[in-house]
Amino acid sequence: MSELHIGLDDTDSQKGMCSTYVVSQILQKLDLRKNLISPPELVRLNPTIPWKTRGNGALSIRLKLGQKNIENLKKEIIELVEEYREESSNSGVVFFDNDPRNIEELRDFSKKAVKEIVKIQNARELAKEYGEAYEFGNGQGVVGAVCAVGYVFSDYTFELIGYRKKERWGTERDLEKNSVKKISKKYSPTIWDNFDWRNSEMVLSPNSPCPVLFGIRGDSKERIIEASKELRGEEVVLKQLFKTNQGTDEHLQHKKNIDKIKPYTSVIIKGEVVREPETIEGGHVILGICGEAGNVIDCAAYEPTKDFRNTIRKLIKGDTIKVFGGVRKKPLTINLEKIKIIDLAINSEEKNPVCPDCGNRMESAGKEQGYRCRKCSTFANKKVKIFRERELEEKVYEVPPTARRHLSKPLIREEQD
């Protein structure tokens, strides 16, 4: 038996199509599902890349083949990619006859692409040395194709994607909201991020004009498949299950010092709140934290994070927190995905004392002369400290599912670990 490992990326554009759909068509039209070594893999790459299309996902297919003519099969796959890819896309397809996950260079390149920016020239060199590559447009998709096929999972989840009839692409999706709520409740916590209870919105259905009707995410492929049968809405013409790194926090890098943070990466860093939250135009909330080396960086909870912003607004100077998020370049800002409150500062302020007789607040009797009640003539030497109860707890707070990045690990998964 021979093996064939196929990587594919960037067959879509903002106008439509979806690389998972192209993979699903390849498996169906060439009758390859029986040859799969494992479910096709959907690998989400660095989510902060400025030139990505939507979710920045790349795909791999791993096949075990008998007497099939592998060269003819490669040609058929390329023909299907040409047929289905968006004309303006920069597609890349790679083929490896041996498992590229056994090659250290490819494994390292794949892991790096989830966390940082990698160069297309390096991807081309790896494909040329160990396999073969086909490019369309400027060939940027070769990067994702190489990364997907060389990727080794340290943690994984599943997503079952259901596709629409072609004549319905680009039209409003017909998916019964109550059925989405029902499966989200029934199969929790093994499926997650399919319905946003805080904002009463469906999350499993995209807004783009692509072929996807829904994508059910979770940890149990059996429960996901069961849940898909209970959805109600328009006709689903094809379903495909993917193994994926979604919901794993694979993109995050621990950093000790703020001055080591690079734009277009995603980080975890501990700091102290030194600039209290401020709501700016557009409803975004910005605060400043100071790291161990004394450097300060802005952190932002943007309007789409909805009530998560209220959590951020309750932070005060002196709070010690750990922040998780992608780094924007100008100005250098961490876009918050979640925070962990490590230590809450005491929230207090000094005020003039209250008169014990009438209950009115006293006034200053003069510089360094204490405080006097104008009405009762009672006297006090100094101000009193007022303590306010904090409305926060020392725990993790996360953005709602509607605002969550594909790679961000939801709290429901952390609670299961």
Give descriptors for this structure.
417 residues; alpha+beta; Alpha-Beta Plaits; Glycinamide Ribonucleotide Synthetase, Chain A, domain 4; OB fold (Dihydrolipoamide Acetyltransferase, E2P); 4 domains; eight-stranded mixed sheet
How many independent structural domains? Answer: 4
Mean pLDDT across all amino acids = 95
Shape: elongated
Classify the helix fraction into a percent range: 10-25%
- At CATH's second level, what is the architecture of the largest domain? 2-Layer Sandwich
- Biggest sheet: strand arrangement: 5-4-1-3-2-10-6-9
Using the coordinates shown, work out and report the CATH topology of the largest domain.
Alpha-Beta Plaits
CATH class of the largest domain: Alpha Beta
Radius of gyration equals 27 Å
Number of strands: 22
Number of helices: 9
Low-confidence stretches: none
Distance between the termini: 38 Å
Largest sheet: 8 strands, mixed
Oligomer kind: single chain
Summarize the structure.
21% of the residues lie in helices and 30% in strands. The protein is of the alpha+beta class and 417 residues long.
Written description of the protein model:
With 417 residues, this protein is of the alpha+beta class. It folds into 4 domains: 2-150, 2-Layer Sandwich (Alpha-Beta Plaits); 157-244, Glycinamide Ribonucleotide Synthetase, Chain A, domain 4, CATH 3.90.600.20; 253-344 and 391-416, OB fold (Dihydrolipoamide Acetyltransferase, E2P), CATH 2.40.50; 347-388. The protein is 21% helix and 30% strand. It has an 8-stranded mixed β-sheet, with helices on both faces. The protein has a 5-stranded mixed barrel with strand order 12-13-14-16-15. Strands 18-19-20 form a 3-stranded antiparallel β-sheet, with no helix packed on it. Strand 13 and strand 14 form a beta hairpin. It is elongated.
